[in-house]
Amino acid sequence: MRDQVTTVDQLREFIEEPHESIVKKTISIIDSHVENYLASASLFFLATSDSNRNTDVSPRGDKPGFIKVLDERTLAFPDRPGNRRTDSLLNMMQNPQVGLICLIPGMDEVLRINGRARITRNEEFIASQQWGGKTTGLAVVIETEEIFVHCPRAFKQAGLWNSEYWLPKESQPSFVEMYKAHLRINGYREQS
């Protein structure tokens, strides 16, 4: 690709070094502010990659409080039944590094967490977390390495929580049509 940026020096020609306060806002522990945020978060996006650097991002949502703080360096969440692809879990088994972007509906600011994940099947531990609803019998435990608040610019620009910017139902893409089209591309024929 022509004009590709491939070095840090080239990148810094366009984007200056971050202000010291931006660098110093990163912490590694779960303080009371982070714990309070996580208690209200009902959605996060989980980024994982396998040993070949193939990356996946998966949404995880539940009632507020489903992200449990175990101590100042550890949090956990339940694995819920889904489509059974288990992309994130398979990736964690090969590469434990994960990233989370946690959200509270209606808030433009997000909380970013990076750390190392492990999967547990410990029934006693899972029961002790009092996660309502069905789990797969597994939970993910993350040791935090970096935690920081992220500015609201992207959500404000997207108007994510402002219903004036939402597409009317009749203009929204049809996921059923997309799903069926993708099956056809891959040669899958639906059973009658």
From TrEMBL:
Pfam families: PNPOx_N. InterPro entries: Pyridox_Oxase_FMN-dep, Pyridox_Oxase_N, Split_barrel_FMN-bd. It comes from the Bacteria. Residues 32-129 form the Pyridoxamine 5'-phosphate oxidase N-terminal domain. Signal peptide: none annotated. This is Pyridoxamine 5'-phosphate oxidase family protein. The lineage of its organism: Bacteria, Bacillati, Bacillota, Bacilli, Bacillales.
